[in-house]
Amino acid sequence: MSESQPSIDEAFVRAMPKTDLHCHLDGSLRLETILELAQQDRVPLPTKGAEELRELLHCGKLCDDLVDYLKAFDITCKVLQTEAALRRAAFEVAEDSARENVRYLEVRYAPILHTNRGLRLDQIVQAVLDGLQAAEHKYDIKTGLIICGIRNMTPETSLRIAELAVAFKNRGVVGFDLAGAEYDHPAKHHREAFYLIRNNNINVTIHAGEAYGPESIHQAIHYCGAHRIGHGTRLRESGDLLNFLNDHRVPLEICLRSNLQTRAVQSIPAHPFRFYLDLGLRVTLNTDNRLITDTTVTSEYLLATQQWGLSIDELGWVMINGFKSAFLPFREKKMLMRKVINEYQQLASARNSISEQLESATNQHLDV
Ligand SMILES: [Zn+2]
Description:
By secondary structure, the chain is of the alpha/beta class. It has 16 helices and eight strands. The longest helix has about 40 residues, at about 330-365.
């Protein structure tokens, strides 16, 4: 890279076509929306002030561990108990994503957490699908929905939720996940749910290797048939499994800031992202929770770029990894990829021509 080449800045990253494959609906609301929904639906919140609420949701703050981080969801789920609220939250997360040029978004949530006011599970799924669809009509974004079971709930509950995912296959639901407290709650306890999911040819992604070691990733892959891994931060502890995931091109949904906040890593420089990228693993960058982690896709890409000095090619590689890993039909994915690669090349060459102009301006200046 020549001295005069401009560093990759926020405007460039914002303009890039991007994906977000790991984004929780209930962790990605707008703060004002929580306050408005609480007032409208008469939901008591621990505070009425925006700043205090931000503090309680520990937006962007370090937590003790994953379980502590997950406490914020008790507050957000309280206001997501009506169809209108779910529809609005889904629309807004897709709108916020589209505004930073996320072109493919997979939103995930656990429908079982939204039954407190009597909604049926099918209403809960349909409302979110309606919100996402409305955003697709308005913006240049494609979306998919991932249904989550919860590790610390019973395997029977997971099976019920898996049946729900099957019922909504080809109607917007593109995958099934297991979220919640990882430590002490092994994925293999829920294998019956995954057996049903896999027998119905539904995609699987599982949170693993975030708050537990590589054994958890091993279970996700070999007991539950995961096609992607949520986080995989601790995969580096097993070279053998790491090679297996690399050989089989199993994508990792990496969420840098969230990994720091849940203490899956002690610092950003200590994150294995660069190590994985250099080994050729299919790493993708994602938000996890736009509100609770206080982040955006642009911000996650920028963080990686600045921390590890990613080149234009490396950044493009991570971006393409995201599109390659989408739970989309092959042909549709290919068409989308062709389009975004073309866009990225144009952006990169426009940037190069700016850098050439800068170089010639600098040279002229030197001549004087
Ligand atoms: Zn997550």
